[in-house]
Amino acid sequence: MGLVERSGSTEERGISPLFLFTEAWECVRLAEKILSVFIDESGTFGDCEFHDDRYVVGLVFHEQDIDISDNINNFKDHLKALGRENHFVHTGPLIRREHPYENDLMEDRIKLFSSLFNCARKLPITYSHILVYKREWNDIIKLNLRISKILGLFISSHYEYFSSFDSVIIYYDNGQTELTKLITSVFSSQLSNIDVRKVKQIDYLLLQVADLACTMELLSEKLETKSFTKSELEFFKTHRDFKKNYLKWFQEKKV
Fold first, then answer.
1. What predicted TM-score, i.e. pTM, was given to this entire model?
2. What class, spelled out in words, does domain 34-253 have in CATH?
């Protein structure tokens, strides 16, 4: 690779051997093939309540050798133009007009949602999700086993893809302890190249996309039963409009 040190050569040229070693290591590191997996959830990991029956896990996949810095910068510019600089877009509360969006006009909420949605459409990513009904798995142990099984089957069915990477890095904010343990256990049991990192949502655009994936798949399920809430219908107008203008385009990235 042209980085072989010859006796006396680095000293004569005023270059530290440590510099050459660091440079060589950086070249190796950059050559690694790395897959990032960003995870978010919707719902609580626990007993079923009337208003909280569905539990969704969203997984967004990004191959790190594909640069998304322009996408990130463009999204930041959109947020700044909307007066939301350094803001994490939490799509569920945004649609339902819950905190911190309770005083925002519908027009402003739609603009904010559209900024994230349009950014996600242009990103070179894919996603998947897990949706379970907690009434069917009515305690934490059963729910854990069910989600673990679905996630395990997904990884095994895509094993060739996952194992083609030198490293698979999982990004999650550890928002729910049970899910953190589940993610670590299932991925580590099937893949040997796993690194799990606790991160802040505000620091990663793709965690916001994972949140969006949860919301879109939750709404997709509610679309099947025509069970949108009043606030969801106010936001998207009709079931047909949601499917035509949003869901159809977003699910093109689904694996």
1. 0.86
2. alpha beta
